[in-house]
Every structure is written in C-alpha cells, then in structure tokens.
Design goal:
Number of helices: 9
Radius of gyration: 19 Å
Shape: elongated
Strand content: under 5%
Largest sheet: none
Order of helices and strands: HHHHHHHHH
Distance between the termini: 49 Å
Length: 206
C-alpha cells in the first residue's frame, strides 16, 4: 500500500509498536504545520525550530496517551502550541531581566518580526519601480507594527489564521477557545489592523 494511503491513525498504531519509520512519516507529514504554529507564537525561526523539535519529542513520549478524540494533527498542534507558549514566557522573563538589569537592547521581544513578514510580503513580487518597492517596504513595516500592537489573544489567532495551515477547529484547540471565539478574534484583529492602517493614511486598507 502506498504510504500516502496510510492514515495518521495507522501510523500512530505502528509507532506505538516501536516502528520508528512510522513516526518519521508522521513528522514528515506535519512538520511544516508544527513549525508555522511555533513561529506564530515565538517569532524567531531558530526558536521555532527548537520548539518544533521539542514538540515532536514530547509527542513521541506521550504517544500512548493519544486517544483519538481529535485528529492526530490537532493533538500534535496542541502540544506544539503549549511548548511554544512556554518558550515565549521563558524568553519574556529573560528579556525583562536583561532590561531591568540595565543592559542595552531594543524594547519588546527580540526576533519577533519574521513571523509577521510572511503575511505582509506576498504582493511585493508584483512591484517594479524603486518608488513602489519603497512604498511596499513602508507598508510592510506599518502592517507588522499594527499586528505587533494587537492584544496577544487577537494576535495569536490572526497569525495562525493568516498562515493558511489550520482550520478554525485546530486553532481553537491550540488556543483553547471555542471556534466562534476564534472567528471573532480573527475578525476583530483584522478590523483593528485596518483601522490603524487607515489612520496612517492608507485609504484603501479594508
């Protein structure tokens, strides 16, 4: 049977029996989704890589606790998101200690721009002139700043939704909120971002 026709549940059953290749296939299938979830939470690609590795290791050790109440992907994403939040909290505490100690550094969380750029540069390839590129660069910075200023709950929901990787059900599982709440958060986040862009003179925003 082709590996593409083997379900996640089949692979989980094999992995529980010690089949390393089966778990490797689960990693291959879901590593992009896990990485993007981690990136949405922590912002830094290198930190997201670390979180993704931690999440897969933790999932492997907890494989026997997977009961199939949700899909394996949803279960895995929930683990990854929790690991990412723990990582984010630890980094926030570390950064605050550095700032409080009077060490030089930029305000805010370090390395938090990469996840924002992915959702603001898709149109840039269609721009040709230096003036268009300069304007696009400013717009990307303004969008990134508008997203960064969102309350954490709105920002997390928006970044996960904007990635295009997850259903609202999966986002709800990660953020531990009902689907209706997630949809409202995404809608409200987009409304706030558009309002901030209009306030900056982008009359066609929204």
């Amino acid at each position: 049977m082709s590996i593409d026709r083997v379900t996640d549940d089949d692979l989980v059953a094999l992995a529980r029996q010690g089949d390393a290749a089966a778990f490797g296939e689960l990693v291959s299938r879901h590593q992009a989704a896990v990485y993007r979830a981690a990136l949405a939470a922590v912002g830094s690609p290198s930190d997201a890589d670390d979180v993704a590795q931690e999440a897969f290791l933790l999932a492997y050790t907890r494989l026997r606790s997977f009961r199939g109440a949700a899909s394996f992907k949803t279960w895995l994403l929930t683990i990854a998101w929790n690991q990412a939040i723990n990582h984010r909290r630890a980094n926030t505490r570390w950064w605050r200690r550095i700032v409080d100690a009077g060490h030089p550094g930029n305000s805010g969380n370090p390395g938090n721009n990469d996840a924002r750029d992915a959702d603001t540069t898709r149109f840039a390839s269609t721009l040709d002139t230096p003036e268009q590129l300069a304007a696009a660069g400013q717009l990307r910075r303004d969008i990134r700043q508008a997203i960064a200023l969102l309350p954490r709950k709105l920002r997390d929901a928006l970044l996960l939704a904007q990635s295009g990787e997850y259903s609202y059900q999966e986002i709800g599982a990660m953020l531990q909120a009902p689907v209706g709440t997630i949809k409202w958060r995404v809608s409200e986040a987009r409304r706030v971002v558009k309002a901030r862009l209009r306030a900056r003179g982008y009359s066609d925003a929204g």
